Amino acid sequence: MAHWIHDDIPDQTGRTAIVTGSNTGIGFEAAKALAEKGADVILACRNPQKGQAAVDRILAGNPKGTATLLQLDLADLDAVKAFADRFAEGHDRLDLLILNAGVMVPPESTTAQGFELQFGVNHLGHFALTGHLLPLLKAAEGSRVVVLSSGAARMGQMDFDDLQFTTRGYQAWPAYGASKLANQLFARELQKRLQAGGSDVLVTAAHPGWTATDLQRTAGLFRFLNPFIAMKPPQGALPTLRAATDPDADPVDYFGPHGFMEARGYPVKQRMVDAALDEGVAARLWQVSEELTGVRYGL
Ligand SMILES: NC(=O)c1ccc[n+]([C@@H]2O[C@H](COP(=O)([O-])OP(=O)(O)OC[C@H]3O[C@@H](n4cnc5c(N)ncnc54)[C@H](OP(=O)(O)O)[C@@H]3O)[C@@H](O)[C@H]2O)c1
How much is the mean pLDDT over the chain? Predict the structure, then answer.
């Protein structure tokens, strides 16, 4: 079977897309490809200088669509709300929301509201953002939410007694794994609740295998091995782009590379980890996320 590549992205003219963390890495490549295909892309980035530089790089290629910066810091729930409010001032619908931004194994640190940084940014910030933007997603026909997870979800566990790693003490990799498992649980529960409420917003998910990006900035061994093993970002963005645009995608489809250990290759449908299939855990995470963020979906 032929590989799914950039040429397979359908025309995106008239569609508005938000890509979080799109100043670099996979998010940048996804934003660039969508703009090239005609979408109006909002780059949701925390650092305005880096974000504007990314917008300028995309516009320098004379894309068919547009690229605009809107500042978003997922590590501060007030900033997340402010972002959604600013977006809603200029838009009455949203066609595509790509929850891409992420941090991996940083030194111990917390968000503005005191949550462990990886759980706070990778999961809670995106949970809050999606909740704020849901009315605009519902207002668009054929809209989609794409959640970025990782093979690291395999090592994730939802310890509801210690989600912030305070009792156990901070452990960088288990905390990353938990946040990436939370991404999969969130995708499934969001789709379930949307369907139960009669909404046709589609939720899909993706993981980019092993792609050489800034993500490995604090993961020394991975950074060292990047030139030998990892894919380059344009290819690493393909699972995201397929999850975002493939007309044949089904609810909670999870796209990842087809090759050995799903580390490299072209995007195909993959299986989420077993722990993500537990509906009780997904429902509990949803409830806890609503409590921690104060964002209630009404779903
Ligand atoms: N690369 C891989 O091999 C790999 C494997 C599995 C999963 N993933 C997932 O793929 C996604 C993209 O990662 P990547 O590899 O492209 O990493 P990256 O190059 O480091 O990009 C991550 C992006 O997230 C942004 N970000 C971090 N904290 C943020 C915050 N508080 N608010 C808003 N944006 C924030 C970063 O902004 P700054 O530039 O300002 O830091 C950057 O734009 C992540 O969800 C990651 O978990 C990647």
Answer: 96
- Residue 218 amino acid letter: T
Closest Cα to atom 36 of ligand 1: 21
Cα distance between residue 230 and residue 257, in whole Å? 12
What ranges do the domains of the chain cover?
A: 6-293
Cα–Cα distance, 240 to 207 (Å, whole number): 7
Hey, what are 168's tokens?
């156990």
pLDDT digits (tens, 9 = 90+) for 221-279: 888 888 888 999 999 999 999 999 999 999 999 999 999 999 999 999 999 999 999 99
Q: Is there a catalytic annotation at residue 176?
A: yes
Q: Which residue has the tokens 């100043």?
A: 23
Query: Which residue has the CA at smallest separation from atom 37 of ligand 1?
Result: 21
Instruction: Decide: residue 291, CB within 10 A, 0-12 exposed, 13-18 middle, 19+ buried.
Output: exposed
Quick one: tokens of 285?
């995470």
> For ligand 1, is residue 256 a contact (CB within 6 Å)?
no
103 lines ligand 1 (CB under 6 A): yes
- What is the dotted CATH code of the domain comprising 6-293? 3.40.50.720
Residue 219 to residue 209: CA distance in whole angstroms: 16
Which letter, b or e, does each residue of 219-242 get, where b requires 16 or more Cβ atoms within 10 Å of its Cβ?
Answer: beebbeebeeebbebbbbbbbbbb
Give residue 23 CA to ligand 1 midpoint distance, Å: 9
Cβ–Cβ under 8 Å, residues 111 and 168:
no
CB 109 near ligand 1, within 6 Å: no
